[in-house]
Amino acid sequence: MTFRPMDSRDRPLAPAQTCGYLVIRPFNQPKAGWYAACELGDAAARRAYLERKIVTAVKPTL
Q: Which of 9, 17, 26, 43 would suit a FRET pair with 36, their CA atoms being 20 to 30 Å apart?
C-alpha cells in the first residue's frame, strides 16, 4: 500500500510503498516514542502466515 508521509509542518514528503500490515506501537520502557511493527507478529509469525498463503494458493486439484 502507499504511505504518504508528512513532515513536522504537515508538508507532504515523497510517497513510499509499504506493507499493509505495518502498524505503530509505543516504546514501553521507558515510553519514549513510537516504532513501526508488523501486525502479524515476529519473524516466525510472518513466515507462518506466508506458508499458509502459499499452501492455499498452490493447493493441487485432483
A: 9
SS3 of 34, please?
Answer: strand
Q: What letter represents residue 31's amino acid?
A: K
Taking the C-alpha atoms of residue 17 and residue 2, their distance in angstroms, rounded to an integer, is 5
pTM above 0.70, yes or no: no
Secondary structure tally for the chain: helices H, strands E: 1, 4
**Site of grid cell 513501526:** 36
The answer to whether the CB of 22 falls within 8 A of the CB of 46 is no
Query: What amino acid is encoded at 2 in this protein?
Result: T
